[in-house]
Amino acid sequence: MGAVMDTDRKRRGRRTSLAVIGGLAVIGLGATGLGGTGFGETGFSGIAMAAGPAAGDGSLVLTDKGPVRGTVSADHREFLGVPYASPPVRWGSPRRAKPWTSPRDATKPGNACAQNAGFFGEKASDSEDCLYLNVTTPRRPAANGKRLPVMVWVHGSGFRNGSGALYRPTEMAVRGDVIVVTVNYRLGIFGFLDHPSLDGGPARNRSGNFGLEDQQAALRWVRSNAAAFGGDARNVTVFGESAGGVSTCSQLTSPGAAGLFQRAIVQSGPCTVENWPDWDGTVDPSGSWLPRSRSKAERQGQAVATRLGCPTPATAAACLRALPTSKLLKESEYGFAPVYGGGGVLPYSPKQALREGKFAKVPVMYGMTRDEYRTFEAAQQLMGVPPLADEADYAARVRAYVGAEKAPKVLAQYPLRNYGSPSEAWSALVTDATFARSVTDFGQSVARRVPAYAYEFADAQAPWVADVGTPGFPTGAFHAAELQYQFDTDYFDEGRLSPAQRRLADQMTDYWTRFARTGDPNVKGAPTWQEGNITQVLAPGKGGIQRIDFAKEHEYAFWKAL
């Protein structure tokens, strides 16, 4: 690391590295109006008239903006790089896509949104013309002419990296007999910069949540065009993992998403967390990849604008919009995430909205992986942060996290002797203090008001990320591990799944798509889920799928009392 490196710059760099991987990684309040968003004001009555099938072989589909020609395979169809909005004005709300007349090529993905290269191998992009989505459908028509459920995937990667095209949902679409839509949305500084000078003008809402607005625009596109692809616009499930899970949780509480979906699945999206640790154990002041208050976000935005040479409030908006993408990308990994309060897309924090029942009353699935934080601990080590060497290092980090007064209690609850290494002990502690507490809080809020089903992905032998070095401790059921059981994705080598793991993947697909179809994941002939706060463990092998006391396993009562 170099002893002569500037301490503040080193600390910020380490925080940035963790932020890059946070959120590997994605909505109504009743069938009300659209809140003046400028998309799809005709509502459900215009769906069939706006778009419809156009070619006998299924390769050509007429959307509400024009025809698209995709790819037809033996068991599925793909339509890639379909614009759901026009190229955005920088820090402006998404606008309708312009219509076209000739068939548009939909055989390759659109541009990924501007981002730096990511920890999980995401490639850098300098494109701000990136509001595209991808549609995968089964090849055969729906049985009895019925329209298929639509599942809209919101990707993760810390609100800093990723794209919809990195997740190829062929197996989910074909086995589950559903339509899957994967979505791009603006990331980092382009999607979540909050600055008072950016309020108004091309921004229909207050600044800070342009990425969430993009997701809502994509959901409106789905509502207008689902029928053209054989889908049911009245049966839409939004789902996402990590940053995509935080997005899904946020959309549940956003008035602008009202009526745009009928079910939601929150995977590893700890949207109520307020104590995310920095690399040294201290609570990250930026909030990292988790929702932050308007006041915190505006302070951050003003500091970023000053560093970029735009310190004057009266001219900051024009100054920032004039900067080249490459210069903005240098600041695009510093704690950008959804913003709540002060009006705008999220009037309340997700934590408050959930607690007070101010969220969409739709069936919900939610959960996490058993060893979430091991991914983040691994990232620190692989990026140069020295691993915890011994009990003294471990105790020092715990003191930094909870304070000297509470540290003895925490160390007694998580003694090093119970774990194979200090990294495993620290990871268990943070998993329980952040992810598991948030998941439990989320479940307690929603299960009182809507059908809710909880899960924990617990395959301790889940293959680690492809082309990323293995850390010096077992990675277990790490953050993002379940993605390889759901998608063909660049992050993982699908061929590394064992036969038992492959069977688990099939069972998970059945559960997820059954929930999308009916609002209940239970499938005939498979272990049953119980509604409420009873958690279903998902692991391979005989007895791998079972129920547990999740709150007890993850020491919820201890952390709540602390």
UniProtKB/TrEMBL annotation:
Gene Ontology terms, MF aspect: hydrolase activity
Keywords per UniProt: Hydrolase
Gene3D superfamilies: alpha/beta hydrolase (3.40.50.1820)
Pfam families: COesterase
Location of the Carboxylesterase type B domain: 60-559
Protein EC: 3.1.1.-
InterPro entries referenced in this protein's UniProt entry, alphabetically: AB_hydrolase_fold, CarbesteraseB, Carboxylesterase_B_AS, Type-B_Carboxylest/Lipase
Family assignment from sequence similarity: Belongs to the type-B carboxylesterase/lipase family.
Protein's recorded name: Carboxylic ester hydrolase
Natural source organism: Actinomadura decatromicini
